[in-house]
Amino acid sequence: MKKYRVGILGATGMVGQRFIQLLENHPQFEITAVAASDRSQRKTYGEACTWRLNGEMPNAVRSLPVQPPQPPLDCDLVFSSLPGDIARETEGSFANAGVPVISNSSAFRMDEDVPLLIPEVNHQHLDLLTRQRRSNTSGGFIVTNPNCSTIMLVLALAPLHAAFGITSTVATTMQALSGAGYPGVASLDIIDNVLPHIGGEEEKIETETTKILGRFVNDAIEPAPMAVSAQCHRVNVADGHMAAVRVNFTRKPELGELRGALSSFRSLPQELGLHSAPANPIVVRDELDRPQPKLDRDAGNGMTITVGRLREDTVLDYRFVVLSHNTVRGAAGAAILNAELLIALNYL
Amino acid sequence: MKKYRVGILGATGMVGQRFIQLLENHPQFEITAVAASDRSQRKTYGEACTWRLNGEMPNAVRSLPVQPPQPPLDCDLVFSSLPGDIARETEGSFANAGVPVISNSSAFRMDEDVPLLIPEVNHQHLDLLTRQRRSNTSGGFIVTNPNCSTIMLVLALAPLHAAFGITSTVATTMQALSGAGYPGVASLDIIDNVLPHIGGEEEKIETETTKILGRFVNDAIEPAPMAVSAQCHRVNVADGHMAAVRVNFTRKPELGELRGALSSFRSLPQELGLHSAPANPIVVRDELDRPQPKLDRDAGNGMTITVGRLREDTVLDYRFVVLSHNTVRGAAGAAILNAELLIALNYL
Amino acid sequence: MKKYRVGILGATGMVGQRFIQLLENHPQFEITAVAASDRSQRKTYGEACTWRLNGEMPNAVRSLPVQPPQPPLDCDLVFSSLPGDIARETEGSFANAGVPVISNSSAFRMDEDVPLLIPEVNHQHLDLLTRQRRSNTSGGFIVTNPNCSTIMLVLALAPLHAAFGITSTVATTMQALSGAGYPGVASLDIIDNVLPHIGGEEEKIETETTKILGRFVNDAIEPAPMAVSAQCHRVNVADGHMAAVRVNFTRKPELGELRGALSSFRSLPQELGLHSAPANPIVVRDELDRPQPKLDRDAGNGMTITVGRLREDTVLDYRFVVLSHNTVRGAAGAAILNAELLIALNYL
Amino acid sequence: MKKYRVGILGATGMVGQRFIQLLENHPQFEITAVAASDRSQRKTYGEACTWRLNGEMPNAVRSLPVQPPQPPLDCDLVFSSLPGDIARETEGSFANAGVPVISNSSAFRMDEDVPLLIPEVNHQHLDLLTRQRRSNTSGGFIVTNPNCSTIMLVLALAPLHAAFGITSTVATTMQALSGAGYPGVASLDIIDNVLPHIGGEEEKIETETTKILGRFVNDAIEPAPMAVSAQCHRVNVADGHMAAVRVNFTRKPELGELRGALSSFRSLPQELGLHSAPANPIVVRDELDRPQPKLDRDAGNGMTITVGRLREDTVLDYRFVVLSHNTVRGAAGAAILNAELLIALNYL
Fold first, then answer.
1. Is C223 touching D (CB cutoff 8 A)?
2. Do D341 and D269 touch, CB atoms closer than 8 A?
3. What tens digit of pLDDT does each residue of A124-140 get?
4. Which CATH class is domain C148-325?
């Protein structure tokens, strides 16, 4: 099979390292370029990058030179996890230079003509690429994945919204340290502590959710007519975001219906057998004390979200707790699954 | 001043140790008896108890013999932090033997004739003691304080309910390890982890809140007509419970009114100048990242709760984060403040 | 290939779970019996055991009944991780009933006729089994592996002792929580803390080391003539014991010789290609800040120890830091490797 | 009493904040100037500094302008906790401008004419100031305190060296996060982990120790003739450095003598009744599991070190574990005690 040649923007960061880890031995992609905005340039990746994930740095990238994040790079497409402040200009320049950009950054997520894609949820939004191509005829385009907390929330909500209609949802997150990148959160700030603030996170969850669950109508996304509330906290966990969620429905289902809609959920990536698609996007656990970050973040190689503590609520209709691996399903894995879908649907 | 002679039931546990720490040098109480249900009996307290709080074990209790938790004990009243399974029988036997029981246990909290007391909130409920005295003429009685998470939630809600009328509230807690006692949570369960379940906690918060905020009518408590939803989690913090809270009001106030109602809140314990009453029951902080357990749990010697991140919500009317020291304001300090109020109002 | 039918004593504990995890899909063993001394009996393993390791409980053991730890069990040999207080009687009864006992418990380690075995280090000590067979003609016998900290220390010392002669060694350990079993260390004891005491650990390291490095002479082990000092600490790490080590030699080598003796070390398990034997028993890392528990504990599937910070010392001759996975190489994996060696050498 | 007007160099850092916290309400000092090398300048201290210690920022410093760390500052002397890279030039310029510099930085510690002072140990070394004054006639001078780990090690060794003569010592440290300043250690690096490297620390302990314990002879310090070995580790503890120590003596004492020399140790600061001097510089604890950072770091308001696990060693003569508060006795408190001694001995 032909392998797509990919460049990684932001390759030395935490999500950049996950891209490299997850793409090792990937049947459809090979990494041919790595770029970073920091002082790493002019070194090889092996010299520039302190590897912070389990296992060793893949040998294939060790000798690649770290390049500046600007076109041209020797690749067919780029995966980007650039920091927000430089992502907009840099990703735009790649797209304008004819390079497809599969981005984990927040810069373009809410742009009207940019798909904010979760393959199991809103692959119909890829029709926005037709609109992008009208303004950018270079062959380049931008597809984004949502914020790490939004992804797990929306993956859990999607089958419920389809079946019963969600009118409002209230999510309270307990998020992992790796979500802040490296060095990220200072150890003195989080030992014996919880931080009740993550910059921009509550707004991202509240706005991204209605876009993703919206309908593609008249060449545009019509946001889903639901109210979303998010309160976000940083807890002393390395990997694995958790959210306590309540939901109100247009039609309140029975508990069994709700559980069934979650556990039986399959979608296009499963039908297409995409390489990174988990057999079950959602696992429902009935133990009293699950999900837990340490025990459940690696479900489905980090691509399955886990739902537990599903119960009737006393203010809204139902409540549950959802967990996912924030740098796999919530970041690098999300972007890779997006690229796999783009290939399967002939966008790449 | 005459000092009341007090016994501590459950004296070797985490809350028992807090009782002893907080009562050292207290102007109104001296500890004359310590009791525990475990194998500590027949030893002195100094021998039986491994002290787990900062600082040294107070000398005054070192040589007290650890006695079985049953009447008679050489004291005027008892503070109890017995485990739930034995509290009901034991506390009842003390009350029937003529001993006032100031309890932190859950056993009697929801009994119809037992005050579930927060001195700043519902001192009127002490009229229930008249009812207790009709069935128990020994002179003994039982007054309880709420669950550690309920106290901070209700303290924050009380001035808002009084001013604007709360119709529903949604609380998501992140609770400290000391709330589980000792040995409590196994370290292997909480390192790099969050536990989404604390036995009985969600039910306690949901039921206790409406009792405390209820009105005393016709010799009974009429629960407040509000819906309460709680989702509870254990996080890797030693002391300091936190809750993310949303509230709906009968009349939605302006943000400034809301803030003012919280920060200006004073009540009977402040007017009476009770020894353990903080000058401000509620501190409101405007920094983006407060409250934090490590920085705010000791506010007001652990008796002040801290509210932060006060903002309009997108589903309910408002949201905020509240924090308090779970074994001071949430347990031992709560019971001691209850006793101080009972003295001031001539119940003791 | 014929599979040996094995029973697991102490099957529900932390090391018992590791046995079951490591034996899943093992080419030479299948688990046919599980036993535990606690209240788990009369339940299936799936009912009795709360699985605390990553991944799911292997299906093959779910339906096995949990039996009392006493012979007969339906198996060819037993792996034991029973608590010290009952291990001596129980393991002895299996050995006397004709069952080979491969034990991780401390009970028999220092017995004169019991091999304290690390396959890479002292397989010659298996000759002690001849002596055991003289007093126990049932066909049963006992082979033990060392304490979790001893194993990594001795693995690092063995090639150095062989090449240069060790006269004394000083080890200061920082040990992981899983070494204390479950529930083990209370979270309130270890959050923001270090514990400078682990019961019996310093003595075990000091006595076991000289036995393992001793010579088999005249039907007995003559302890190695070296002085060993251990100071042991518990740190807030889930898995992975670390030790800071200094060593004095009969003949002080060059640094390069020392490094080479460690990194080139191979032994009988590697020659025999034992299933659990790592390609390299010892990896030497030259980065300034390695080894680290989080990054190095899983080297060689948890069977490789990592040595770093190798330098001349200012009091003894050399110093270094060594790390290994305490429940794999330090416990269950050690016992399994022992059993694999016993098969290869026809003791089983 | 006249109060000395002091400036704080590096006022916004972790040690700078400790200076400000410890000097609040100090009878001999008032803070009249704060300086920092970062972007804090032109703001008030209240604006520039995110307070990271327990309790609130003292009001007296809130409105002080943050100035650049260069003379002149409006003060009689400066306390410095500047980072190593700028300390040498900056502290030198203050000393040359006639300002006494009481420094916690490492820049001048090993200079031949600079006292490396622990008031309980080597106040005789202050005679070096005579030598400084020969080359610097401005009235300024520099006095330094040792590295945070060196202080506790030397405090424990000093009475033993005086009584029995130390020939060598081996220390293995487990150091707290606050020793690295803020932001310091990244949380992702230390959660579930230990770091076996702290830049420059081992060398500092090994060299500073012999200087402090050296004799003042012929206008210079003659290093103590002992060998010192240090291996240093960072552990997941907020405050409180711990070291496992072994010692060899010229004359090996009985255990009781050793214990007595430690627990009875008093010195000049105690005789002079210096404000920050603890009643007991060293507390010896006999419990099996002490000292512990969480329980013992605040002994003597953070100025007392705690020694435990005192036992005969199997390689050297004796071993023990020592603990102290690294930013109080190990940094800001050390410098303040130095200044108090300088006043008492009329150097200020």
1. no
2. yes
3. 999 999 999 999 999 99
4. alpha beta
